[in-house]
Amino acid sequence: MTRKWQLLALGLVLGLTTVCASFVAGFYSHHEIASRRLQQLIQEDPYAYYISPKIYKVFSFFRTKDEADHRLRQIMKYGFPGLDDLRLYSDFVLSYDRRNRVAHWVCEHLQVDALQSGQVSRQRASYRPDLTVPSNFRSTLADYHRSGFDRGHLAAAGNHRGLQSHCNETFFLTNIAPQIGRGFNSGAWNKLEIYVRDLTLRFGSVYVCTGPLYKPKQRTGGKLSVEFEMIGLSMVAVPTHFFKVIIVESKLPLGKPYMEGYVLPNTALPDGLNLRSFLCDIREIEHYAGLKFFDGCFEISVNK
Ligand SMILES: *[C@@H]1O[C@H](CO)[C@@H](O)[C@H](O)[C@H]1NC(C)=O
């Protein structure tokens, strides 16, 4: 009698365990498949990435640890400035402006270790067109050749020394814009890039978003108009200005991140100018760029 009950109980427990285990296994494999589909979708269409946090929340119980996905989430921690033609690279994220053949913006996340690695060199990288951009919207090496302009990096090569492939990717022409060489690319702009890296060495974690501006000028009679040059057969726009919006994460446990914005004219600037004279209200950058930066961060006031 008791033996019969024991057997029955044992059977019941075994049965229940099997049901539970297969339920969990089923749920897990389901999640695996869904995550993989999502990854595929993100590769094909980055807009899926934008909505993916909402999907992920549903089954964050079994969160998969995908390195690339993790990195992207980190770079875009403070939100997307815009959503036009998003392009994901290994160590930066870019929005491409097909009309002007220059990015709208490039976002990076800087940490100390990626700045100090000794193995990576920009000498081993070379400029090349990004063939994933449709050919009629792509800028080419020929466009820049003899144009009188430098091939200026938006995401600086020196920020991506963690891996040679990361450094290489900054040389895609999607990340390049026509810049005045002497007095700008090798002058004030370079200084600004070094300043961003110094902030990283001091604070440990810095987010930076870089892009071009096409600022209007006042004509006689008071009307505004935008004028900029275009180079090459692809007609690559020469931005009138470049901006960087920088966000620095505080090392203090409850310290809030703060941000500051810089706008530099794409002209030969005299040596010895103080970078702080280029500080700019973030709202002004948003106004000219048509972008929205880092909602909810504390902005330092522009006291030059
Ligand atoms: C970087 O680019 C160079 C030149 O284009 C190439 O020879 C090298 O293999 C690339 N390295 C990596 C890690 O992608």
TrEMBL record:
It comes from the Eukaryota. Residues 89-300 form the ENPP1-3/EXOG-like endonuclease/phosphodiesterase domain. CDD domains: NUC. Its EC number is 3.1.30.-. GO terms for cellular component: mitochondrial inner membrane; nucleus. Belongs to the DNA/RNA non-specific endonuclease family. This is Endonuclease. Pfam families: Endonuclease_NS. Its cofactor is Mg(2+). The keyword Hydrolase applies. The active site is at H153 (proton acceptor). InterPro entries: DNA/RNA_endonuclease_AS, DNA/RNA_non-sp_Endonuclease_sf, Endo_G_ENPP1-like_dom, ENPP1-3/EXOG-like_nuc-like, His-Me_finger_sf, Non-specific_endonuclease. GO terms for biological process: apoptotic DNA fragmentation. Residues 1-21 form the signal peptide. One of its GO terms (molecular function) is single-stranded DNA endodeoxyribonuclease activity. Mg(2+) binds at N185.
